[in-house]
Please model this.
Amino acid sequence: MKNDRLLNRLALLLLGLTAAVVACYLIIFLVPTFPLNPWPPIGRAALSTVAPTPTIAPTLPPTWTPTAVQTYQPVATRPPDTPVPTRTLRASLTPTKSAALPTKSPYKFTPVRDPVLTSDKYGAACGNWGGVGGQVLDVNGAPLPGVSVVGWGGPVTEQDKRVFVSGSDARINKFYSGDAAYELYIGAPGDFDFFVVVYENGRPVSPVVKVRMVNDCSRDLALINFQRNY
Model:
């Protein structure tokens, strides 16, 4: 019986405590600002008010001096590249021949240079020999035998032209230091014009070279070298 009474009392105590806790929760729910509320609500004024943060003023030492700031020189920029001019095509497609370029001779043979008057190759007595001689060369400057060289003038009439085939006489080749030498014997030296031309197949294939012969034993030979152009 005693145990039953003790249990009843404990049950009543627990029930009373439960009712008290429920009552407290009900009061806190209805009145949130009740002093027994462990987490009272924060007021709007408290939410909107922010405490100002104190500003700490920088303090300088008594002998503070400003630190020099390093400056940089501006770097020179590269000037813009000069635009390369574009090539403009000419409207005309006809090539223009440059005046600086030599024109091709219409003759198959031409003299290498102007005639040179010198003494004969034989050391003949003065007044006993006069004539024209030289070499005939190909397009590369090599001796070209078998070419007819014709000359007339002064004591030699045009009807009796002198004719010599280059390289046909070994003795003449030796005198003129080449394998395609020629020589036109005129006779005694004198003051007259003599004409020399290269012939091929019975017709001239070079310009007619005019030489002024002189009555001078030291200049009784006119040297003329002919060269083939093509």
Q: What stands out?
A: Residues 66-72 have pLDDT under 50 and may be disordered. Residues 122 and 175 are 8 Å apart (CA to CA). The helical segments are 2-30, 44-48, 170-175. The longest strand covers residues 192-200.
